[in-house]
Amino acid sequence: MLTNNVKGTHDIIGEESNGFAYIENLLRQICELFAYNEVRPPVIEHSELFVRGVGDGSDIVRKEMYTFKDKADRSITLRPEFTAGIMRMIVQNKLLATNELPYKVYYNGPVFRYERPQLGRYRQFNQFGVEAVGNNSPEIDVEVITLAYTILSSLNLANVKVLINTLGDDDSRNAYKDALKGYFAKHLDHMCPDCHSRFELNPLRILDCKVPEDQEIVKDAPKMKDYLSDAAKSRFAKVLELLDALDIPYEVDDTLVRGLDYYAETVFEFHYTSKTGNDYGAIGAGGHYDKLVKELGGPDAAGVGFSFGVERLYSVLKDDDLFPHCINTPVEVYIMPLGEKAKVMAAQVASELRLSAYRTDVCFEDVKLGNMFKRAERKGAKVAVIIGEDEVAKEEVVIKNLATTEQKSCPLDKLIETISEEIGNEVCE
Ligand code: AMP
After folding, report:
1. What local confidence, expressed as pLDDT, does residue 46 receive?
2. How much is the mean pLDDT over the chain?
3. What is the pLDDT of residue 387?
4. Are residues 98 and 144 in the same domain?
5. Ligand 1 mean position to 345 CA, how many Å?
6. Residue 110 forms part of a structural domain
7. What distance separates the 2 farthest-apart alpha carbons in the chain?
8. Burial status of residue 298 (CB atoms within 10 A of its CB: 0-12, 13-18, 19 or more)
9. Model-level pTM?
10. Contact residues of ligand 1, CB 6 A cut-off
């Protein structure tokens, strides 16, 4: 017990940790290119926020939240997603009144859902996403989709499928919900208990049911597109027109409804199948919402956002061998001091190299030179800097290029110049 992690959690170590850092850095850079700023809301919120925000008809709120009473008997929940917390932050800090609109932010951090753990499905996992709040236009929906698509392209994920749909405006959704109720009322006796409560709370959720017998019934259910108002149709047409103008490929999927209650109008998912044929399903998803800010006591403001599962991104990049080699080779220069005096000089040389941005490690263990070379190789070093008694006396080092095996002496004041000649100063991104 003491040495086992909690079911559904996982330790991110070594290569996986390097992979996460690579993904998160790249995502950050792209968000900044689109003029989004980072926010860091707390991990815990009042439970009521998610009940109101995510919706009591959603599986997340009904079954998956980590909720507990704190010592003052308040009901607290570990965030199961970011959007509701960010809207709370926006309302509480009046950020829509004090910033240019849309207010554009990105986030990155752990979320918690009590789901059945399986491959690629955890109870604690990491989400990276964005929200753009305070502008209701189709252009902003498309900007957010473009941002997500740019991220996936920059990660070299070629086989991404963008699925898109519209849930329409209130009128469209109410008409559609009535039609669904009429249809499912006839079949409810043969459907799972969850669908019975979905029927009462939000019949749209039934379309997401994973029970195979229910899916058969869902197949013949009325389709959203037949209930769209003219305004909703023309808004969606505008979204698709903009995507065409930006050469972003997509497929309209009229079964896509998303599992959170706050969505309206545009919804989308990014699906991925690896080169080896593994179907990862949705690696990211999002959509437009227009009631959430108001529901939480803020102004009448619409927003749009998406969220990627970082674990899923890691798995597809790993599966398709898309990580740059250098992220797993932490060391460029390996310093090998031979003797106590050499260790002092090694520490000084290491500081100088690190100040010049060379990833540098020193072997302070008293092992034989041959062993030091093996260590350098294992760490992926490009250059070894060897310092013996002679070198200390002459204030120089021996530099060995580990690719060509050529070596030469180098005075200390020419160190950086010589290292740069050997390996350049390529940045690993
Ligand atoms: P959602 O907030 O449900 O739309 O999820 C957004 C993304 O988070 C999904 O596309 C997945 O990539 C990821 N995700 C959702 N649930 C899990 C989970 N239990 N474990 C790992 N990743 C998840």
Report:
1. 98
2. 94
3. 98
4. yes
5. 50
6. yes
7. 93
8. buried
9. 0.90
10. 81, 113, 115, 120-122, 125, 127, 259, 282-285, 307-309, 311-312
Q: Which candidate, 310, 259, 311, 312, places its Cα nearest to that of 286?
A: 259
Residues of the chain with pLDDT under 70: 259, 425-429
**20 and 84, same structural domain?**
yes
Q: What is the CATH number of the domain that holds 347?
A: 3.40.50.800
| 404 and 262 in a common domain | no
Kindly give the distance from the C-alpha atom of residue 312 to the centroid of ligand 1, in angstroms, as a whole number.
8
Indicate whether 380 belongs to any domain.
yes
Q: Which of ligand 1's atoms lies nearest the C-alpha of 117?
A: 19
**pLDDT of 228-275, one tens digit each?**
999 999 999 999 999 999 999 999 998 888 767 789 999 999 999 988
Closest atom of ligand 1 relative to the 127 alpha carbon = 8
What Å distances lie between residue 142 and 84, 135, 248, CA to CA? 21, 12, 10
Q: Whose CA is nearest to atom 11 of ligand 1?
A: 309
Position in ligand 1 atom list of the atom nearest CA 270? 10
CA distance 282 to 140: 22
Q: What is the pLDDT at residue 276?
A: 83
Q: Whose CA is closest to atom 15 on ligand 1?
A: 309
CA distance 376 to 359: 12
pLDDT value at residue 197: 87
Residue 370: predicted pLDDT: 96
Question: How many distinct helices (H) and strands (E) make up the chain?
Answer: 16, 16
**How remote is the CA of residue 284 from the centroid of ligand 1, in Å?**
7
Q: Give me the DSSP letters along 224-279.
A: GGGG--HHHHHHHHHHHHHHHHTT---EE-TT---SSTTEEEEEEEEEEE-TT--E
Domain final position from 293, 319, 345:
319
Range of the domain at 264: 14-169+229-319
Which residues have C-beta within 8 Å of that of residue 349, sequence separation ≥ 6?
Answer: 335, 385, 387, 397, 412, 415
**Cα separation, 1 vs 175, whole angstroms:** 52
Mutate to test the pocket of ligand 1, among 23, 125, 268 (most ligand atoms within 8 A of CB): 125
pLDDT at 208: 82
Q: What's the number of domains the chain is made of?
A: 2
Q: How far is CA 36 from CA 133, 138, 152, in A?
A: 11, 18, 17
Distance CA 231, CA 217 (A): 30
| Cβ-proximal residues to 404 (8 Å cutoff; 6+ apart), any chain | none
| Residue 312 CA, closest ligand 1 atom number | 12
